[in-house]
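## retry 2 of 3
previous attempt timed out at serialization; input unchanged, resubmitting
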Amino acid sequence: MNASATSQDNTLAAFQRDFVQALFGADGLGAATHPGFAVYRNTVRGGCIDALEANYPVVTALVGRDWFRASAAEYAHQCPPTDVRLMMYGEDFGNFLAGLDSAAELPYLPAVARLERQWREAHVAADAPVLGTRELQALPPETLPELVLAPHPAARWQWFDEAPALSLWRAHQTDDEAQRTAALEALDWRAEGVLITRPHGQVLVAPAGRATCAFLDACAEQAPLPDALAAAAAAAEADPFNAGALLEDLLTAGALLGTT
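## retry succeeded, writing output
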């Protein structure tokens, strides 16, 4: 590529960058003074708001469409998309809600938003083999002290101290308003954990204890199996802890990465 072509590419890239910045309020082009530019700006922002509403349906249901779209407009202004896939827009929307003054009395919103984001990440994660029980049992016993089990790329997990995020999410997985209302009224307001997997192409959402979340945290940090189990046992505190049952549950759920 010659110098002239390189210069043209740089100029075009700079124009495109400035144009995008102008769409979101940082007007380095003076474009906002042009009649009709507001049409572009409103169209882009509207698309971002629509994408957030589609990506966070339970949060929308919890707060109402008007409240959600007003907050989404503020988020879109602060955090324009960085991924061409709008279905992935709103990566840190949960953190945004946690810092939003108008959501201060709704402490459960960030937790539900993070769960919804994790579901979406599990849905689009890369395919990979799942570790099975037979594969694990076939390993020589002498290798187990150094064995590092990796979470599957589609696995997501989190312990929510602040709210029953899983129960709130589950209550909204029906179109039956009576069922949804009954589920919300029966809600036990306590901390909950969640494990999200995709073992056979379908995203599965299940409850997870502190021990399970701690074990997967340790696996994600490449801790050897004995250390990961020790972390799980410590997190279980007074709760009964069974290492074999924990591993079996994770293998059944497809939460661990296989080797074939």
